Amino acid sequence: MTSLSPGSADALLFDLGRVVLDIDFSKAIACWAGHAGCQPEAIVARYVRDEAYRLHEVGKISDEDYFASLRASLGIGISDAQFLEGWNAIFAGEMPDIAELLPRAAKQMPLYAFSNTNRPHVDYFSKEYGELLGHFRALYLSSSIGLRKPDAEAFDHVVAAIGVPAARIVFFDDLAENIEGARSRGLTAVHVTSPRDVENALKALGI
C-alpha cells in the first residue's frame, strides 16, 4: 500500500471502470452472440483489444469504422445498432460503496476522473450515471484528449490540467500497468483490487 497520510494530497484522480462504475464485458459478448446466432465462446475466442480499439479510444476512428473492424475480426454480420447495444451493455451499475465515498471525499478536496474510453461509452455513462459523476470537477477521457493511459504524455496532460503537483495527486486505478504509468510520472497511486482499497486509502488520508 502506498504511504498516505492526512494532508498528503491536494486532489484525487479516479479511473472509472471497475473503480467507480462496474464493468461486465461478458454482457457485450452475450448480446452480440444473441444477435449473431452463435455461441458467446466463439466471440470470446476472437475478440482482442487491437489497434482499431486503441484508435477508437483516442477518437481517431469513428464508431462505424470500429464496428466494421469488429464485424471483420469477429466474423459476425450484425448491424452497427446491434454492436452499439452490446457495447453499452457492459455497464453493470456503480461499484459498491462508491456513491457514499465520492461525496464524502469531494467535501475535503477536488475529485477528477481519468478514463480510457470511447465516445459511445461517454454518451451512455454521462446519462446513466450523471448524478454520481457530478462529484468530479472534471473528467479527462481518452477519446476527448486524444491520449490514453498508461502513456506518460497522457498523465502529464492530466496533471497539467489539474494544476497540482503530481506528487500531491492520489490516483486510483484497477490496472497494474496504469498504476506503474502514474507512478513513473510522479503521482501517488493506489491499485484498486476491491472497493475496500478506495475506502482504506481515503481513511488514510483522513477522509
Automatic annotation (TrEMBL):
The keyword Endoplasmic reticulum does not apply. Gene3D superfamilies: HAD superfamily/HAD-like, Putative phosphatase, domain 2. InterPro entries: HAD-like_sf, HAD-SF_hydro_IA, HAD_sf, PGP-like_dom2. The keyword Iron does not apply. Its EC number is 3.1.3.10. GO terms for molecular function: glucose-1-phosphatase activity. NCBIfam families: HAD-SF-IA-v1, HAD-SF-IA-v3. It comes from Bradyrhizobium ottawaense. Pfam families: Hydrolase. Transmembrane segments: none annotated. Keywords: Hydrolase. This is FMN phosphatase YigB (HAD superfamily).
